[in-house]
Protein 1
Amino acid sequence: MRKVGLFVTCLADLFRPRTAFAAAALLERAGCDVEVPRLQTCCGQPAYNSGDTQNARRIARRVISAFETFDYVVAPSGSCAGTIKLHYPDLFADDPAWRTRAENLAARTCEIVSFLADVCSYSPRDVALAASATYHDTCSGLRELKIERQPRALLSSVKGLRLIPLPDVQSCCGFGGTFCVKYPSISNAIVDEKATNIESTKADLLLGGDLGCLMNMAGKLRRRGSAIRAFHVAEILAGMGDGPAIGEEP
Amino acid sequence: MTRAEADTFKARAGAALADHHLKTAIDRTTRTARQKREAAVAGWPGFSRARDLGARIKDHVIENLDHYLIEFERNARASGAIVHYASSAGDACQIVVRICRDAKARTVTRSKSMLGEEIGLPHALDEAGLGRVETDLAEHIVQLAHDRPSHIIWPALHRTREDIAALFREHHHTPQNSDDIPAMVASARRQLRGGFLAADVGISGANFLIADSGAVCTVTNEGNAELTTTIPRVHIVTAGIEKLVPSLPHAFALLRLLVRSATGADITQYTTFHCGPKRAGDLDGPEAFHIVLVDNGRARMLGQGLAEMLRCLRCGACMNHCVVYNEIGGHAYGGVYPGPMGAVLTPVLDGLETSRDLVHACTLNGRCQEVCPVDIPLPAMLRGWREKSWAQGLEPVTQRSFIGLWAFVVTRPRLYRLGAGLAIKTLRLFARDGWIRALPLASGWTSTRDFPKPARRTFMAQYQAQKRNRGL
């Protein structure tokens, strides 16, 4: 049995526990032995992308120590998984011992949907949702981890779900982590264009694999008065599409 | 607002965002460019291999720059060219102005060259009292409007054709009767023709410097480079040293990538090789042929972890596909080169202190690298600049303290759990119907977007409680 450490991600922990519950449920259904290490917090991306390498290293060492005993580390986020998988080894370029540990962890780190499809050959059975949805490829997942085919393949096994292609799907939504805080007006102009494209699909649901991007798009759609509801793709695959969408927390 | 405040990146970007006319102009050009590039790449099964080869050719030249510089200089001299070296922008301009003065030039024609813009050549020629005629159609527009280029392929991209029609009517001797595009092009042609014929010196850039022949290659779609370089008595080429390639086949390998990435065409309308001055029996060509090889920070980039940036072919694909460029346009960047490649190069040319915003104003979505015909790791380079900015203490105190405090908390899981629980409880106080419409300290988000209400308890707290209930 694959022993999987679930990397919850700070956004799921704080804003959308349902995403992490969905990820844990899916991993169990795919035959994994799931654990949630208590020592985890954040992958350190805000420090890394701000240029604060020292703190990024400090945080990375903690993540490595907390997860290196598992067969796999799986995160419901292309962005956090990408940080561990691609950037941790770079962070320790000048530190051979930690570099080896970082590379070891990187080789076993995956984003949830691609892990289910590529490693577990899992696809949901008996999951139904009568709705139309459009899927946005979040950039880190798409370009750093090459996740494009897998979510569409898995979503095609959800009975009653109709996928509508999103125009200009490869364009970033303007979230960009600290970018949306540092340059809010540029970020807003970008997400406004994204929202126009999403609305043009007339889909019931917006799906994606990263909560940061989803919160950005859902927040913009809501402000524009759109009725399109946003879910993390893992929630739909886990059969939780009948629950509250992002921003519908009780 | 003081002048210094008005001239910050944020102020320029804000003004650009408020300019809907600008957005229309940007979208018209970049949308077509993206579609044409996509079609060109889709129709070229060997694109990915060609891209790898392109990157390898450039890397090879950059690693052996001294060798190819010497070879190029030797062969260019043998063809009758006069080769000059300029280490800085100022040196390069001085050399060009001196050549013009020695030739007793009154007017000079210039075909589009980003290197010329980089070294400030238009300004230097104006200062020297030389009559300057910009012959590229878009540069002509920019000159008429006393403007600056906003894109490296389409310098007048920020102007709509309606703006340009008005500009031509105001400035051309015999402007167009109707504002259809052929009539406007004909008007520009009438206007420029006299300039081409009267010029004493023609100045061009170079897309490739071919080491084994000493030839210089220029590509244009208007034929203006040919009229700039063949009619006047003197032809001056200004080129960055990274434009070197070993031989003609290498130039063609890169040319295929450059043109498809820039405009989606298979080849430019004009691809011209210039080798030495007019020879006995030649019908036309310049009497003197000067090549000014410009460093201007390039050699320094090798030692700064920016060597891969010297692969850049100046195709503009990165900016055409950049979500930030597409919202704010080229002028907001404040440097000569806009978009992702500009954000990497401007700190080299103007210093990081004045351009630190550029390296942060990027979502790191990676699309620029994906469409780059020579696979330049632009996002990694921008992150590299962020590291330098942090290490040099250029980041604002508020950001440093925020990241510092946050890192202190996330490296202490117990404290983090406590803080997370408090944070969501506080945030929930601001929520109505599941959403937060206004949030102190986060107005950047909530002034234009709603923020979702957090869950009642964090995942970690809920998960632990479930485990306890199950007696695990």
Protein 2
Amino acid sequence: MISDSEIDLEEILGRSINPDYGAVVAFIGVVRADPGVLGMEVEAYDEAALEELKRIKEEAIARFGLSFVDVVHRKGRLLLGEVIVAVVCASSHRKEAFQACEYVIDELKRRVPMWKKELTEEGGRWVKGDA
Amino acid sequence: MRIKIRAFASFREILGKEMMVEIESGSNVSDLINHLCEIKPDLRRALYSDTGELRDYFIIMLNRRRLNMPEDLGAALSDNDEVAIFPPVAGG
């Protein structure tokens, strides 16, 4: 999902802890305090982004036999240290959970129509995606 | 026919978030781009190099399906299509 309010990590992780899954792996992306950066603005093409996220999750389930996968991405204005994205994958064993988590975040960065603008004192600069 | 234009990130700063444009029936994606460049000259500078070649630093979606550029410049448009234009994605 795409959220314009703070991501509740406890809630997502809570849902992923289950006696049926032996391993839970999470990737948490955070607004980094690079020199001159005061915060981050995240923009999304909501409808297309949600469709692509759904496809990526389905691919991860099919490829790695996941029992649970959830992705929450923030949009709007974020402060330094706030969570931009959380990916949580649960599987019977750790190997598949690690692989799936990496797959989901890599595909998200490559395919999901969202953009980040680093906010600086001079205004802002769009983070470059791969052409 | 009427086409809904949606723009994101640096392209939103040029085109605005959303607008409806009226173009001739039978137009394709290339016709639409030309039309938009006429309305918003800054778009031409974003899409084309100084030598007039189409840059590869933009993506177009037609009804939320990504087009391949420049192969799909000739893709036909229909009334009420949604065309989105944006730079390469950079989420996560």
